[in-house]
Amino acid sequence: MPRQFTLDHFKAKDDVYLEPGVGLETDIVIPIMGPTGVGKSTFVNNVLGREEAQVSDGFKSCTRQLAHYFIEPHQLAGKLKPVGGSKMDGESELEGGSKVGGQSEPEEGLNTEGKQAGELEIENRRIVLVDTPGFDDTEISDSEILRRIAVWLASSYSSKMTVGGVVYMYPIYPNRMTRNDRSNIKVFQKICGEDGLSKVILTTTRWDICPAESGEKRKKELVNTFWSDMLPGSASEEMTKAGMTELWNNQKSAWDLIGYVLKRRADSDIDGVILTLQKQIVDKSKKLKHTDAAQALRQKLQELLKESGVDTTQMRREKLRALASELAALRLPLSTRIMRFFGRTS
């Protein structure tokens, strides 16, 4: 019989989470996830219109602890101009992907009783942006980052808050996608689960510094290869799979992305979702290392450990020891693995 959930089981002293009564059941929660240095905090600042989230000056992360930002209903007035329709802009030429805040103006949302689509169902509701640390931080382990994300998500779910959208950011330039990036996406998919995928917006950043030809080529690569299993393959899958868009470094683009998230939410029959990581921790009272996300992370660490074994420098040996320790913390006991083999554990 699973133990009853309590946040005290895995939260730490300095964790950021929602105390009971702070979050409302009507809040629209939008976690912002993605690699270190991708522009998550910059996006938050562009939405808020002020420098509140600390921003890094390179690839080194400034967001090592989660931060949440409440946007009150009166702050939304005149800001939202959602992308028209659920069909992704540019779909015919790139098989997916919507340009938000780029060089061309987005389509206007459809009016319903004088309100734009996306605004109708959020009257008197707050938006909660959740700025999360990225994996592969130089100073914090991936398992610790996952734990911090899990603590916040569990606390919000305990307050009956659901997720209205999840933004996953990835830089279109200058680096190409690595095996490690693909492993991080697998962890992200396990955090969200199949039900959560319908609320995901895959967002490419750094278009401001990317040569046009390189950007379009890499976008096609993401759509056709690395993100193909998350994106709709047909019109019938548009609202059950993830959406995709571009993000530029300005306030208009940031608010257009919020509008796109809300438009997809308004077009869906589901107001909000509960992510798989939340269900497993709160509903099933699983330990973090027993969750699907933790096991995907364990696979990633095993691959890193295997690849790192050929380097014998002192720095690499220290990294190997840290990876081995992280793996040990995520490893399932033999009894649990046996029970899973016979289908006798949740």
Structural class: alpha/beta
Q: What gap, in angstroms, lies between the N and C termini? A: 10 Å
Mean residue pLDDT:
80
Main beta sheet: 8 strands, mixed
Low-confidence stretches: 82-98, 101-120, 334-344
Question: How are the SSEs placed, and which strands pair?
Answer:
Blueprint: E1 28-33, H1 40-48, E2 67-71, H2 91-94, E3 98-100, E4 111-112, E5 115-116, E6 127-131, H3 142-158, E7 162-163, E8 166-171, H4 179-197, E9 200-205, H5 212-226, E10 243-247, H6 251-267, H7 276-283, H8 292-308, H9 314-330, H10 334-341
Parallel strand pairs: 1-6, 1-7, 1-8, 3-10, 8-9, 9-10
Antiparallel strand pairs: 2-6, 4-5
Please describe what this structure looks like.
By secondary structure, this protein is an alpha/beta fold. The strands form two sheets. Strands 1, 2, 3, 6, 7, 8, 9 and 10 form an eight-stranded mixed sheet that branches. The protein has a two-stranded antiparallel ribbon with strand order 4-5. It contains ten helices and ten strands.
